Amino acid sequence: MSVNQPVVSSDEPRIEILVNVSAGETRAAQLENGVLQEIHIQRDAAGSAVGNIYLGEVQRVLAGMQAAFIEIGLERAAFLQISDMVRRPAETQDNAPRIQNRLNQGDRVLVQVSKEAMGTKGARLTTDLAIPSRFLVYMPYTPRIGVSARIENEAERERLIDTVTSLRDELDLAGGFIVRTVGDGAPHHALAADMRFLETVWRDIQTQANTAPPRTLLYGDLPLPIRMLRDLLTPEVAGVTIDDSESWEEMAAFTRRFAPEFTDRTQHYTKPTPLFDQYGVEEAIERALRPKVPLKSGGFLIIEQTEAMVTVDVNTGGYVGTRSLEQTVLRTNVEAASTIARQLRLRNLGGIIVIDFIDMVDESHKRQVLAALCSALEADPAKTTVGEISPLGLVEITRKRTRESLQHLMCTDCEACDGRGFVKTGETVCFSLFREMARVAHTQRPDELLILAAPDIIGLLLDELAATFNDVCEDTGLSVRLQAESLYTPEQFDLVVM
To answer: What pTM was estimated for this model as a whole?
Structure first.
């Protein structure tokens, strides 16, 4: 199916969404003008819990921290702070709530995961529930009506607020709504359909909460391919390409039902070259795991992620410029600012970020660099706060994070260097191996395949990932022999056609 191209001006970025479905793992990439901006990864064995609503059970109340540990059925107890609980009518700033007056050990409480478990920390929870649909987000306990800040036309904002307010009154719904960015221009009937859908979902959650045992998942978010359509499919998106026929049919059905005007934008990729290889995404992901990022001018960045913060160091490298040292530094810093904004988004780096720009003397140059950084960060969907440039040339940024960084998701501590570096996890290596098996089967059609890999990787294929490995063998029709090579590094493997 061909992609129906949107009408956009020449200065607007061409946005494309690519979805790769492979055994045990689904990946979605967002490209702007052919450059990878974001990568989302969902593994079948460890799907994201963000957005899920659970009937939790209070494990322990910590009065000193004004927080509580809540058991929701995950590996570790989740964490709920008093600031993330919906205020009751009698509670004001002067009459601040105390968590020990709200929760007791053993209480059942309806909670939603707002931040993924990271490292040794459990998931972060809120009781201020938010249920998304294509155009709206329903907040059962918050009465306000809001519109995404990315919808800037005042007349359209007023129309949306009036429409949603009148529809809420007609349906006699409690709570509030936020119109999402994709709701820009949404007609009355589409908003009404979304609102009825959300009402049904909320009623079902309430019914389950009355009968289900504690630690039960009451509402889970959509699979990654459908979630990408719901959250990102706008008129600015040129096309959505997916390499799996079953998922493509599900995506096409979703667009026919919820976004019929975009039905022709989804296409099934069937070429022999893997989808992510065709668009250079695989290589871009590999580069995003390296600390060094080259700049077009010849300079480079060094990005280091630690438990406490992320540091970014800007260097001129071999770039000496053609005019003066000040102009060389300015050009490198301005280029670095836009590259840093993209790398933070691509690597999903959050928390405290410290950027060490090359020292500048001219105050106007400092303002130019800071303006370039702020401008580049405007495209980032995550909330960011930027500080001023310090006398040492440092800029502090805070960026909201709700899920693991790309490095933490795909890599693990390197045992050989006692945790001073990272290598890809065994799972990440195995999923790469599965994709390579599919490519070899499609392009070379061998009768038999010999896989050489490190002993730990062979162990995973025969144990934890045995079912997935067998599925790949059946899907590709390959007869496979495994051979452990003790001299191979954890990331190294070879496929030999027999």
So the answer is: 0.78
